[in-house]
Design brief:
Number of helices: 4
Number of strands: 27
Radius of gyration: 27 Å
Structural class: alpha/beta
Strand order of the largest sheet: 1-4-7-3-9-11-13-15-17-19-21-27-23-24
Shape: elongated
Strand content: 35-45%
Largest sheet: 14 strands, mixed
Low-confidence stretches: 249-258, 260-277, 361-391
Length: 423
């Protein structure tokens, strides 16, 4: 696979004009753009308005995290990851996946759509397949989804129209307006402490409302209720059944257990990311020490060479300027690594606090057997005993994951958990 590189700054403008195959785009800390493709005639070039990319087949692109990306037409599948700049996509003729991005505007997706961990607004005009969106911290707008929709943990306003069925599960309502229109059945679950004015409409005249203290089933087309002070507004429209529930985390089914496991491993990854960021800082410091050594050697060589003083001064001035630029780039990398890690840790802490708050309000567990997840307090310096308990918690999560994947039975899981407790 051939590759091409172009040096750039840390926030370039990228214009992906046409990709005839599939595309993978991932951000990195380097101030350069890398294009990998099997096609020899893939194009990566600098233009007046920024960096231009074209390819007749499949390709991979690595670019700075803060790059602003504009893509025209992608004829295959597309995947964008670790981008903190603006992302604009006109058309994807396959499926589209976006993870760890800031904000995105998308025209048309002919396949399925997956969005996970967006720190800004996400707006998509059309999805001809199904859509899954999770952890969108800004506004989520899906003008038309031809298939089904699974929407979870969106913090801001919601405006979606779905031709299939929709399942919406929200653990934090930070927005003011929520509009969900579905041609099929609609399931919507919100926190028990939500402050909402909810208006429901069912053309099939089937509305079911389940609150912590009551369950209501209606053969009506319209129904309204008020939760808390009714600070936000929610409009639910369905061609079939509307199911609305206000309750806490104990309503989770097995797929939610899987999501909890994903979150747990994600938090573990954040801890590793912090360690890696520290290692990166150490590596940069080592590189700067080497640069200083090289500069000192250069100065010594010039003094011994008999070079005229004016020429020697010019060479040393250029060397020091290069060193200053290298130092500035290194400091910028460190700043960006810390800023990015702070953002991720803030989001993880916020979610953990919500889960702990929900657990405190949760009533006594039912008599039936169920898995219970407890989220730890903010980390402190661990003792030897605490470190061993942390490892045991990770082992428990792995056992639960094997159970969820049906690699072991419930009896085998209980035996393994019992063995861990006896450590």
């Amino acid at each position: 696979m051939a590759q091409k590189k172009i040096a750039t700054d840390l926030s370039p403008s990228i214009n992906i004009q046409s990709i005839q195959g599939s595309l993978q785009v991932k951000g990195w800390d380097r101030s350069e753009v890398l294009l990998r493709a099997r096609e020899e005639n893939a194009v990566l070039e600098k233009q007046t308005e920024g960096i231009s990319i074209r390819c007749l087949g499949d390709c991979e692109v690595r670019l700075p995290h803060d790059a602003d990306v504009a893509a025209a037409t992608i004829h295959g599948n597309a995947r964008f990851k670790l981008l903190e700049g603006e992302l604009r996509i006109d058309q994807v003729l396959g499926s589209l996946e976006m993870r760890d991005i800031d904000l995105a505007q998308v025209g048309s997706v002919h396949g399925n759509l997956v969005v996970k961990q967006a720190s800004g607004d996400v707006e998509v005009q059309q999805v001809l397949g199904s859509a899954l969106a999770r952890d969108v911290q800004g506004k989520c707008v899906l003008k038309r989804v031809a298939g089904n929709l699974d929407l979870r943990d969106t913090d801001g306003d919601i405006d979606v129209t779905v031709q299939g069925n929709a399942r919406v599960r929200l653990c934090l309502l930070a927005g003011k307006n929520y509009r969900i229109q579905v041609d099929g059945d609609l399931q919507c679950i919100v926190p028990e402490d939500a402050s909402l004015l909810v208006n429901m409409s069912s053309k099939g005249r089937r509305i079911q409302v389940r609150l912590p203290d009551a369950t209501t089933t209606l053969a009506e087309e319209n129904y309204s209720l008020k939760l808390g002070n009714g600070e936000a507004e929610m409009a639910l429209f369905a061609g079939g059944t509307v199911f609305f529930a206000s309750r806490e985390a104990d309503w989770a089914e097995m797929d939610d257990v899987r999501d909890e496991l994903d979150d747990a491993f994600s938090e573990f990854s954040e801890e590793m990311g912090t360690r890696i960021a520290g290692e990166t800082e150490d590596q940069i410091e080592t590189q700067m020490e080497l640069l200083n050594e090289h500069l000192a050697k250069l100065e010594l060589l010039i003094s011994q060479s008999g070079m005229p003083q004016a020429e020697a001064d010019r060479v040393m001035r250029r060397a020091r300027e290069a060193q200053e630029k290298a130092n500035a780039r290194a400091q910028e990398k460190i700043r960006r690594a810390h800023l990015k890690m702070e953002r991720k840790l803030e989001a993880a802490t916020r979610k953990a606090e919500m889960k702990m708050k929900a657990a405190d309000r949760r009533p006594s567990p039912p008599t039936r057997q169920s898995w219970k997840f407890e989220w730890p307090a903010p980390p402190t310096t661990p003792t030897k005993t605490e470190a061993s308990e942390s490892v045991t918690d990770q082992e428990r999560l792995l056992i639960l994951q094997m159970l969820e994947q049906k690699k072991i039975s419930i009896a085998e899981a209980e035996q393994l958990l019992a063995a861990l407790e006896g450590k």
